[in-house]
Design goal:
With 249 residues, the protein is an all-alpha fold. The chain contains 11 helices and no strands. Helix content is 62%, strand content 0%.
Length: 249
């Protein structure tokens, strides 16, 4: 280490206490969310559950939106972690594609944490607006990156650019080409369209289940979802041309 560089000073006692109190508030808010649902979330209710005044809680979160932003970002991060863990685990059946395993991980987290999933994708909280390009957006991109990898891993940029999709209008193509540099713009527009379509299909089935619309399937819901994801992946990969063999050098 150069002589003029020093390791960062450890957090002070006051900083450690503040961090611990913040974690406790977030955990209490998550418990309240699980018990009462997103619509009932309020700083006053969270403070009451911790035996503190709402004025004291304002020292950590200035308003409800600040707490909601933390809860949403953490839910996205936990969902992304579950998807990454599923995609990175050794599957019991090696023939099952990584995308299907990741999708199963997405579904399993959603049905295990329905209230947190509803906070992300249910009815928007009244008067709440996430900060532009803030922690909720960055956390969401983590999950997008996982699905981009498991859906298109092994394909070259040239193959993805030549994917057979419905004709994209010039305005839509231009929009897809100019997405945020750390978002989907690493993909050619045709692949971005396929990724969005795949996510919409997968997410739609999970939403139907979390909100109770597939209860008629009983214990067969997991199998139906798994088969649908296998079929979805096959259909998307059929749209991507095979790699061109290298000609003689």
């Amino acid at each position: 280490m150069p002589a003029d560089e020093h390791p960062p000073a450890p957090p002070s006692l006051r900083q450690r206490r503040r961090a611990a109190a913040t974690r406790e508030i977030v955990e209490a808010a998550e418990r309240h969310l699980t018990e009462h649902g997103p619509a009932a979330l309020s700083l006053r209710a969270v403070a009451r559950s911790l035996g503190m005044s709402v004025q004291a809680l304002y020292h950590y979160f200035p308003d409800r939106d600040a707490l909601v932003t933390v809860l949403i970002a953490k839910a996205y991060e936990d969902l992304a972690a579950a998807v990454r863990a599923a995609a990175g685990a050794t599957p019991p059946d090696p023939s099952v594609p990584s995308f299907v395993i990741a999708a199963d991980g997405y579904r399993q987290w959603a049905i295990s944490h329905p209230e947190r999933f509803q906070l992300l994708y249910g009815t928007p909280l009244r008067n709440y607006a996430a900060p532009a390009d803030g922690p909720t957006t960055r956390a969401m991109r983590q999950m997008s990156a996982v699905f981009q990898r498991v859906l298109f891993g092994g394909f070259t940029p040239e193959q993805l650019a030549a994917a057979d999709t419905l004709t994209l209008s010039p305005p839509l193509r231009a929009h897809l080409e100019h997405l945020s540099p750390d978002g989907l713009s690493a993909l050619p527009p045709s692949a971005t369209a396929l990724l969005l379509s795949a996510w919409g299909h997968m997410h739609g089935l999970v939403v139907l289940e979390v909100f109770g619309h597939t209860a008629f399937l009983g214990d067969h819901r997991a199998e139906v979802f798994h088969l649908a994801m296998c079929d979805l992946l096959t259909g998307i990969h059929r749209r991507i041309p095979a790699a061109q063999a290298n000609g003689p050098g």
